[in-house]
Model the fold of this input.
Amino acid sequence: MNNPILQLKKLTKTFSKGKVKALNEISFSLSKGKILALVGESGSGKTTLIRIITGLETQNNGSVVFKNNILSSNKIFIEPEKRNIGMVFQEYALFPHFTVFDNIAFGISKNKKERVTEVLDLVALEGFEKRFPHELSGGQQQRVALARALAPKPELLILDEPFSNLDVILRQQLRSDIKEILKKTNTTAIFVTHDIKDALKISDEILVLQKGNLLQYGNTDEVFKNPNCEYVSLLFDAYKI
Done:
């Protein structure tokens, strides 16, 4: 892989004084503009992994390298707000007393009106600037959350189970729309999900975790067609599309 934007090197995380290994020497690289689906059942280590990448958690060993700069290692730690990594949360995390405009503008330091207009157009919510979150549907709230995350122009965007609160029809539409938006903006993204169907539809690459171990990582089609172990095979068999 030529000049990856993100590299994880033998990332290890333990809890309970080393008795519980949440991540076991996880290593992978992600190229600019690629969408990676991070999949696995509850307890697989997905949340711990993204918390370490964003700086909300520290690892015991290994390193996170972003654009050839070490974000965290045994000796180095860069604060979350200095990493230029955006986040779209499962619960949207919109400010209820802020309008759509103010929610999106919250993380922008300059040219707020221009940038808010740009991202609202990008997520097809033109004209919604003065509305409040409670006046929006679930899908519209998710689009606002995406617009807010994209507004500061992050070089990496992490989406944490973004469709879990949506009905089937809406999630099908949104996953298609979000993939189009990410590709249009050439945004590198990690899409966290336990739903294999979502992962197959939206990602370029897929990484499968089980109990803190990286079981398989590669091109989405290749991993789907050629699972390397019984667990990965069964995972895909349960969600054939």
Summary: Residues 108 and 152 are 6 Å apart (CA to CA). The chain has eight helices and ten strands. The helical segments are 46-54, 100-105, 112-122, 138-150, 168-184, 196-202, 220-225, 230-237. The chain has a mean pLDDT of 91.
